[in-house]
Input
Amino acid sequence: MRLDSRDALSSVYAKPTRMIRDKALPRLDKHSRHFIALSPFFCLRSSAADGTGDVSPRGGEPGFVQVLDDTQIAFPDRPGNNRLDTLTNMVENPKVGMLFFLPGVEEMLRLNGSATITTEGALMQRFVHEGKRPRSVIVIAIQDVYFHCSKALKRSALWNPEKHVPPGGFPTLGQIARDQIGFPLPSRLIDMALRHDAKKNLY
Output
């Protein structure tokens, strides 16, 4: 059976409990603030004007996402691949979703809101790292925020080092580039260039 309506979904899935239904808050509280302050990594969902979706990983030192007040957070846009998929989406459609992770903790923090991209001087200065300014700063006006249960991370055993893919268990990005787009260099040279770029242009 194709589940293509709310009624169809309701025929398969039970109603959420009151605790689950009412857990979304319109602003940060002490627990969500603390989680964000400790988190070194989140995934950012954006979508273009035509609805095409995109998810981008964002990482930094714990606290690289800063709380501006109870309804706003901000984070730096560090050097990346310059495709600008996420930033272009934000310009066309500011609605975004964020999923924060905390290494070793199986719960996650979900946040939905609207994004603004800025190069305003004082905000840019807040995110100087090792003497380097970000390309821009993204400010998120919070719509709702809530903690996500641990089932996904329990099933994945994401934090269990015994489940990590061993060295050589997956091809390098250099090998992938050679196979997918026929990049005209040996894979070892591509990987060497990528390692150099990551070391030189991390911030």
